[in-house]
Design a protein that fits this description.
mainly alpha, about 270 residues, single chain, 14 helices, MetI-like fold
Length: about 270
Amino acid sequence: MFVKWLKESFNALFDSISDGLLWSLLRLEDFLFWLPWWLIIAVVFILGWRLRGALSGLTFAFLLFLIGTFGYWDLFIFTIAIVLTSVIISIVLGVPLGILMAYSSRLETVMKPILDAMQTMPSFVYLIPAMMLFGMGKVPAVFATIIYAIPPVIRLTNLAIREVSREMVEAAQSFGSSSWQILRKIQLPQALPTIMTGVNQTTMMALAMVVIASMVGAKGLGMEVLIAINRIDIAQGFEAGISIVFLAIIIDRLTQGIADLSRTKKR
């Protein structure tokens, strides 16, 4: 009844959110499709080489090439667009909320059970209100993915800010630094490695929603897995499934590399 009330009372708002989110997602897809396949592979190779070493860069490039040889390049683009959109929105919403939790113990007390529920609730459940509010297609898939994937970046941002040395904060306060200066110049740089670990976990959880998101009509590698299940097609299911695994390996190693780089700079 509450969701129905939301739909009836704020229908124009949800339509605006849906239109804006869909426009952003389609523009990202258009940009990724505009890029030549070899350029995307080259960029992944360079990132892998710089962050994890030359062998890792070659491995990542080869895994992407394999996804293309399976005939799933277009589906890969659809999938990565949904994942990137969900992760970007999760970071934009999650990091500030984590910072607020670090500054307010009362807010942390309120948010902890909510985050627990978001992480333990079966992910299929998120599709129900998403479909009621946004219909079928890519937008409810992004909405459900955000709800499922955002808790790690909120939790780890809160933890990272709270673990910053109190002596450093007190020293900055003694020199007359404002709260904003302390956050920007001391707490965030010190907390960055842990925050990047939260971004890594959020990204992996967003990727875990790929197959489930396909149930509301989101095109991508998850749709191929769903089709293979319906047809009991082992080969198609294996190819689509292993492509998702390849994508998960690449994203996990690259985001871990960024986190390790931030730790190195911190030292």
